[in-house]
Amino acid sequence: MVDNSNSVKNQLLKISLEKNIAVEEMSSEVSKGLRAKVLEKFTNGCGDDNFIWSSLLEENSVFCRDDNSWLLLDDFIKEQKTYMFFNKSDCPRFFCFSSGKDIVSVLHESSFSDVYFIDEDLNFLITYSHHDILTASGTAMAWLELLIDNQGNLLTPLVY
């Protein structure tokens, strides 16, 4: 099995450095604790901790199908301390950002497949999967519901 964790971490840190974006890598212990809390609060407990998006509680999630929907993250996150993390097999560590603008800037240059975002208090979980689906849980649900139709399509298409 190939260990991708260094390549994901290295890509994130390289992009952040090139763009002069402050990012803090969380310790293994902190990352493990946060992942456990995310699984407990936002999933149905039937999945593993790799593809969290596949075991989200459907009744507590709203989704959007658009390959550019990750551009919306700054609109919700704004200047809020937010953790970015990945499937455990891709990279077990969590990374802390101070704004949605910084996150979008890093994502713009990256080739990450599945990416997850939480705030410090775990009020929300936002996922963006390799299927080009943005999913909002917790307090992010109301925000995303205002931007989509009943089929999960954006009311106003995004241009990248």
Explain what this protein looks like in three dimensions:
By secondary structure, the protein is of the alpha+beta class. The chain is built from five helices and seven strands; from the N terminus they run H-E-H-E-H-E-E-H-E-E-E-H. The chain has helices spanning 5-18, 28-42, 73-77, 100-109, 140-145; strands at 24-25, 61-65, 82-86, 95-97, 115-119, 124-128, 133-138. The longest helix is centred in the N-terminal third of the chain and has 15 residues, at 28-42. The chain is globular, with a radius of gyration of 15 Å. The model has no long low-confidence stretch (mean pLDDT 90).
Brief write-up:
With 160 residues, the chain is an alpha+beta fold. It has helices spanning 5-18, 28-42, 73-77, 100-109, 140-145; strands at 24-25, 61-65, 82-86, 95-97, 115-119, 124-128, 133-138.
